[in-house]
Structure to design on (110 residues):
């Protein structure tokens, strides 16, 4: 059964940055876009740097895609698809995320 779970308050994620949340024993990086207030959620695990650090990456836009740059080796991951722009063989898991009033929720598979 799937259900939406509260992971943090809207004010916990400063626009243009990310935070990390533990959901179903997985670290999830949640990002809030500065210009649109849209939310994105991807795995916090950087498969290239092999560390849980993506929530500390820098959000930006590359070729019209909203991305996060890994704080380790600076590869860009598309926040919509999880694909790495420089090394397409790497892809992050993405998660459904939404606002529920002032709460940020992720869809849990548990």
């Amino acid at each position: 059964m799937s259900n939406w779970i509260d992971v943090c308050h809207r004010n916990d994620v400063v626009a243009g940055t990310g935070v990390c949340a533990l959901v179903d024993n997985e670290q999830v990086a949640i990002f809030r876009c500065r210009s649109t207030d849209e939310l994105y959620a991807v795995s916090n695990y950087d498969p290239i740097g092999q560390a849980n650090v993506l929530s500390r990456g820098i959000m930006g836009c590359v070729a019209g895609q909203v991305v996060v740059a890994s704080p380790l080796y600076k590869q860009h991951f598309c926040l919509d698809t999880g694909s790495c722009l420089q090394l397409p063989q790497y892809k992050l898991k993405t998660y459904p995320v939404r606002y529920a009033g002032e709460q940020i929720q992720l869809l849990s598979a548990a």
Remarks:
- Residues 34 and 40 are 12 Å apart (CA to CA).
- The chain has no helices and eleven strands.
